[in-house]
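Bug report (template v2)

What were you trying to do?
Predict the complex of my protein with adenosine-5'-triphosphate.

What happened?
Run completed; filing so the output is reviewed.

Input:
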Amino acid sequence: MKKVIIIRYSEIYLKGKNRGFFERAFENNLNRALSSFEHELIKQCGRYTVREFNEEEIEEIIEKLKKVFGLHTLSVAYETNSDMDSIFEAAKLVARTSGTFKVESHRGDKKYPLTSVEISKKLGGMLLDYAKGAISVDVHNPSFSVRVDIRENGKALVFGEFIQGANGMPVGTAGKGVLLLSGGIDSPVAGYMMAKRGMNVDCLHFHSYPYTNLQAKEKVVDLARILSEYTCGTKLCTVSVTHIQEAIHEKCKPELMITLLRRFMYRIAERHAKRIGGQCLITGESLGQVASQTIEGITSSNSVVEELPVLRPLIGFDKNEIIDISVKMGAYETSILPFEDCCTVFLPDFPAIRPKLTDILREEAQLDVEGLIEEAFATIEKIQL
Ligand code: ATP
Ligand code: MG
């Protein structure tokens, strides 16, 4: 008996006339996620089935599907003829050998000779006889369920569990953003959150080589790769800010180092975004987490962004909530590796907690802002993920 995987989508069902647009993106992303596996993806009445795959690869296929945004739940089902004897053969494979159970039936084919209640009763009786007392019925709180879906094509799908997907909207349906990706915990999670709402995410990383080492860069490349599994392909560019940090270090008050550097990062990121068709910047900032993320700190860095919105999907998250998502997306182990990104070089002992714009502008006036930005763009590197 053949196994198929049933895929149900999440919020797409709320869409009206433009549902087709979201469905096409979802289909593309599913096929892309499964591109290294033999498979066929079929759409049927608002959901999908994956079939014709190598059953030895089913666990890997499920892991890939769980990373496709827009997927609400999936089930591994047996596809069989819709007569009760065939359904029973499949149900024997789904049922456990002990515990309590219930049968839930659904008829897509309204001409089927039995109603869904009759199907459930009949199949429940057959399973009870077969198990000879090892299982019993509990319709309110069963330890497992056997589910039957009678299709219009004379086939039935028989399955047990719903496996949770990543939910959200299909990537590619909500524009493109440039994620400021550091080597920390927060920014990969911020990218994940925006991809979850359907956004294409490209990454920009600032480094201070040779003050930071190549392992720090490798770590960011690894994080971009992990993110890429959810974003249907992410591009990563790196830019050196070494000369900017050196200039700030030489000419400006040390307590404003982070704020001044942030302003350069935002300026460079906005220009980069415009060059590559990005419609917003994305950061991993969370209110009050560190000195540069007080409302004053955010205001002072944000004020150099001229046109694009800056999205901060983690702004109201606690660190432990961010860590939970980081673990779930598989980034945490990489994020906590000890290699430092640029911000820890030249780090002042006491960064300004509530930097004043007048102070910042006075310090910045000592720098050749445009020249430094130009110099930074000359170091841009596209990384092959
Ligand atoms: P993260 O865990 O994402 O590094 P953080 O808590 O360390 O965040 P900050 O270092 O203040 O916070 O950085 C705030 C945000 O600025 C980051 O989430 C990221 O979006 C951006 N950022 C910081 N450093 C870099 C960098 N080297 N390259 C690109 N973006 C950066
Ligand atoms: Mg950081």
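What did the reviewer find?
The radius of gyration is 27 Å. The chain has a mean pLDDT of 94.
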